[in-house]
Design goal:
heterodimer; A: about 170 residues; mainly alpha; globular; B: about 280 residues; alpha+beta; 7-stranded mixed beta sheet; about 30% strand
């Protein structure tokens, strides 16, 4: 398969999940698309290497996370975007618990590293090995970070109500 | 909390986000732009440069924009950069350096930096000197071998780009780089050439824009007075026909127009059209 076809195929398959991962990490949908696009552009630049690598997903997610973090660092020195505000403008506070809001609120409460770990493991379905490569940490650290995150989520009131209501 | 719970919750939460189709073309362009920024050398696909000066939600220059194209309100005439002038046909124009000549060709080949609106290609051949940039602004007659390597938008109008390629012409050894942009809905296409390098071609084509508030006087070609009047009407310009006794001309054919083809006018302006008297 030509290099180009291969890239198109990869993108077609992974695009929605990459964008949604970015949303779960805390981006607005527009930012998420920007982020995913930027990441894939950079991957295209090195696509022959990416193709040859054992793990395209790990490579792509590593770029995605790095971009997300550097973007986040830049952002914190400027204004706080709506995504980071505790009260979402336009969120109907009085309505019953909305699944998505509850999940997003719970994720918002996690420290960044834990949130990233949760999204990579439970949404992007990366293995612990892949996550170690993506995050540049030891597999053991991945394990402990995940377990702390899951514990925090299990105790999260929003999620508890959600699970209770199901 | 068991794993599948968490997966389920995240997938439902993630699934709420609507995701448009992947902007693959834009990614390729972006990747190429990054590659060009890092390595010197001949650019093969320069569509990214085309977006450089274009207003409106089109391709990327800085932070990439993804998602489906959004209709932008028609921009008020963007200022022409200093030292440039605008040359166009109807509502599509290109900004070229003010000092460039117009139609400075010999046997259809540019002899100095020039914009070309009327081509004088005749049965002769003239070599292109080195270090010459040029752009042709043409209407219809898109060469059949034109390939749309890239599709994009200029101020919301669909356009196509054929990648810049360079060919070494023979004695004297001059490398000529060519790139093209086609705007199908307006019938206008541009061919930029440079005997300096490929980056110049990309730079030239980056200055194409849509001008909703201005109309460029069309080239004459071989139009009759009536045909030309129709063309003007299509772009909101008026014609004032002036017959003139001219030797060796088919009666009724347009001999000259004023202001000159390529000049940008406001809607409702009048173009004086000299036609060969019957």
């Amino acid at each position: 398969m030509s290099r180009d076809d291969d890239f198109s195929e990869y993108v077609a398959a992974r695009w929605p999940s990459l964008v949604r991962s970015a949303v779960l990490l805390g981006c607005t949908p527009t930012e998420a698309e920007d982020l995913a696009q930027s990441a894939l552009e950079r991957c295209l630049l090195k696509w022959s290497r990416v193709r040859a690598a054992d793990d395209r997903d790990a490579y792509v997610h590593r770029i995605l996370i790095n971009l997300f973090r550097s973007g986040r660092r830049r952002r914190w020195t400027h204004e706080k975007p709506a995504a980071f505000l505790p009260e979402q403008v336009g969120t109907d506070q009085t309505a019953g618990i909305d699944d998505t809001d509850a999940v997003m609120r719970a994720l918002d409460r996690l420290p960044g590293d834990q949130r990233t770990a949760v999204v990579l493991r439970y949404y992007a379905h990366l293995s612990e090995q892949q996550m170690a490569a993506v995050l540049g940490i030891a597999a053991g650290t991945v394990k402990s970070r995940l377990s702390r995150a899951v514990k925090a989520l299990a105790a999260d009131p929003d999620l508890a109500e959600l699970r209770g209501a199901r | 909390m068991i794993d599948s719970d968490l997966t389920d919750l995240l997938e439902r939460a993630g699934g709420k986000t609507e995701v448009g189709p992947p902007p693959i073309d834009a990614m390729r362009v972006g990747a190429t732009r990054r590659r060009r920024r890092r390595t010197a050398g001949v650019s093969v696909l320069g569509a990214a440069a085309v977006a450089a000066v274009i207003g409106g939600a089109t391709l990327l220059t800085g932070p990439p924009q993804a998602g489906p194209p959004v209709a932008t309100p028609a921009p008020t005439a963007a200022a022409v950069p200093d030292g440039m002038r605008l040359v166009g046909r109807g509502h599509v124009a290109i900004a070229v350096p003010a000092q460039w000549a117009t139609n400075a060709t010999r046997c259809g080949t540019a002899q100095e930096d020039t914009v070309v609106i009327e081509n004088d290609a005749t049965f002769c051949l003239s070599p292109r000197p080195a270090g010459v940039e040029s752009v042709e602004l043409m209407y219809r007659g898109l060469p059949p071998e034109f390939r749309a390597d890239q599709r994009f938008e200029i101020d919301g109008v669909p356009a196509e780009r054929q990648r810049t390629t360079c060919v070494a012409r023979d004695a004297p050894q001059v490398s000529v780089c060519t790139g093209m942009v086609n705007v199908p809905s307006l019938g206008v296409w541009f061919r930029a050439e440079s005997s300096t390098n490929a980056a110049e071609v990309d730079r030239i084509l980056a200055r194409i824009r849509i001008t909703p508030d201005q109309a460029g006087v069309p080239a004459i070609g071989s139009a009759s007075g009536e045909d030309y009047q129709d063309e003007l009407a299509e772009m909101g310009l008026k014609a004032k026909l002036e017959p003139k006794k001219v030797a060796h001309n088919v009666p009724g054919m347009v001999v000259a127009v004023s202001p000159a083809p390529g000049t940008m006018l406001s809607p409702g302006d009048t173009v004086t059209v000299t036609v060969a008297a019957r």
